[in-house]
Write a structure and sequence with these properties.
InterPro entries: Bact_solute-bd_prot1, SBP
CATH class of the largest domain: Alpha Beta
Shape: globular
Number of domains: 2
Strand content: 5-15%
Keywords: Periplasm, Signal, Transport
Radius of gyration: 21 Å
Subcellular location: Periplasm
Largest sheet: 6 strands, mixed
Distance between the termini: 8 Å
Organism: Neorhizobium phenanthreniclasticum
Protein name: ABC transporter substrate-binding protein
Number of helices: 21
Length: about 425
Amino acid sequence: MRSKLAGIGLALALAIAPIAKTSAADLTIFHSWSNESEIKALNVFVKALKAKGNTIKELAVPHEQSGAGGPIVSLVIAGTPPNIFLTGNADVYRDIRDRGLGQTVGEYFDKIGATPNFPAAVQEAIKVDGEVRKIPLGIHIDGMVYYNMKIAKAAGVDPTQWKSADDMFADMDKVKAAGYNFIGVGGNTFQAGYLFHALMAAVAGPEVYKKFYNVSDGGKPDPSVFEEKGLRDAIEMFRKITAQADEGWTNRQWNETTNTVISGKTLMQFHGDWMKGQWKANNKVLGEDFNCINWPGTKAVAVTVDAMGILGGAPVSKDQLAAEFDMASIAVDPANNGQFAAYKGSTPVRVDAPEDKLDACNKLVLSNLAKDNSSVLNPFYISDSDWINSIWNTMFTFQGDRNMTTDDVIAMLKGEYESIFN
């Protein structure tokens, strides 16, 4: 198995001006968030940490350049490691840990009484090889349907009545006849990758999903997955969705795609439920302007737990480490976390978060998590970064090439599998 994490974004890391030697409680934070809802949410934590007398320098990299989190490792290699870094990718935490710069946080969460208040899915997602190394920020479902209620009414359709994907697509002609796009589609590898793993959960189901993505330490996915009907079904549904792309889809970011739904051009978008933050940033009201539903007939949902890590080891002073743990405490504080979720569009990571921060979409997320065998973890928590990147590139290639078939996709995935694992 090969790893590209250390190499991804190295040029970017070296291009960043060297960070001056830090003093006590003088911290750097790395993230790849950029839209209004993300920044507003992150600032809930940053402002609270600054209020304690700390100074924070932000290193922000666009999401597409951040990729699998490689620039974080590149900054470590360049001798300019960030004190706080936002990523859920287990490989990043392993790499930093193996360089003697990792920091566990599980014992601290136990001490402050946070651990029992994390849902089971959160407790699992923040572990790396059995150790809690991630600070959970918010819960997301990687594939939910968010739709414009006014367009639905104008087109004479009711998404809450869709029991299957067939029901959903049966209404497509009505929506188009009313003058609207049916499904919003964006144009980069991130969106293609997330759309596909959301469909692997919803359409193929949890068992096929795990065969396709699960990689234990030194292991590889189950190659019998390439013969699974569920894999073919997910690929074919991916094609059916991306075939609805309008003329502006190429290079369009996810939030710009969301804006086509918000502005009344498109009925809906199937993407991560961080879309809600974009709706709220545009002063739209849940239940009046927009609504959320699971993929019709969904078999399982893929779960992302936004997370951050903190630096340990020799480069970190005693005061810096104390400030880093302050950030951990701030992030999982029920009130702070509830406010973060309200801005970000996520669901709080604590079951004791203020009730007034839970809306109907949050309750839908929590109901999904409460069902047995109906949720799976984001691939970055359970898989191999090279395999994930290969899947992203394959599906984005498929999205842009109308001549590719399902058999072509499976053949390409098999080739990538052989290159990575054999």
